[in-house]
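Q: I'm a student working through a structural biology exercise. My instructor gave each of us a protein and asked us to get a predicted structure, then write a short paragraph describing it. Mine is Metallo-beta-lactamase domain protein. I'm not confident about reading structure output yet, so if you can add a plain explanation after the tokens, that would really help. Here is the sequence I was given:
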Amino acid sequence: MASNLASLPEVERLSPAVVRILGGNPGKFTLQGTNTYLVGSGPQRILIDTAEGRPSWIAALRRLLEQEKAHIQQALITHWHHDHVGGIQDLLGLNPSTTIHKFDPQGGQHPIADGQEFEVQGATLTAVHSPGHTTDHVAFVLREEDALFTGDNVLGHGTAVFEDLGTYLQSLAKMKPLVQGRAYPGHGAILHSAPAKIEEYISHRKQREDQVLELLASGDGDSMHAKGGAWAVMDLVKIIYRDVPESLHIPAAGGVSQILRKLEAEDRVVLESEERWRLRDRSSL
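A: Happy to help. First, here is the predicted structure for Metallo-beta-lactamase domain protein. I'll explain a few features afterward.
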């Protein structure tokens, strides 16, 4: 886990209707751990995500429910990654009547549709299908707070990874105007302005794309990195991420590859032999 991350308590009330329970799984990619959220103010609550199944998480959740004199009516899953679904069986062991909802449901789970509403006392949540990080990714608008549970599309620290950049950017654009208030991310501390952070993410991705295009435009036969004007992904990474520890260059290469695939779909770059990329029309830049 990055040393500059703020310390977060295992359980913290963030608003009258939202309590965060950390998953007990801190790490390089999970930050302080996966955030799960108990939502509502009455005896029946909604849980967003179930972390990865660490004993400390279910124990903390059990204590919290006893203190709140509440039980979980529904669990809403933002996406399929293990650190968000791994605690489902523990949750059902705690309360077998809990219904599990997911966009692409698996055995016994209930589907989530884009725009579907889930309601308990003190909280109305609207599902927003927002693929990109994963194809089944869903965010949730909390109407009473004008707030957004962003899942892993937007994090409380750093940037998110994605399976498809073009789809991810479309989802960020879809999410940005939905609320004016805070964001409750899948990892990291809460963000006080969801639209500002989403715009920051969009701008960051545009900056990275511009850097890739500039390097492709600069490549020529005399370049130490480019062969005849074509670049390997890792050579692009070594320049664009030169201030980032080399241990992070491999995941960064995934992001650069996504940029190149997006540009290829837009007919702006060409993939050549030896996994090297060049501009399709260098005179256009």
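A: Here are two points you could use in your paragraph. DSSP finds seven helices and 15 strands in the chain. The CA atoms of residues 5 and 32 lie 7 Å apart. It's a good idea to check both against the output above yourself.
Q: Great, thank you!
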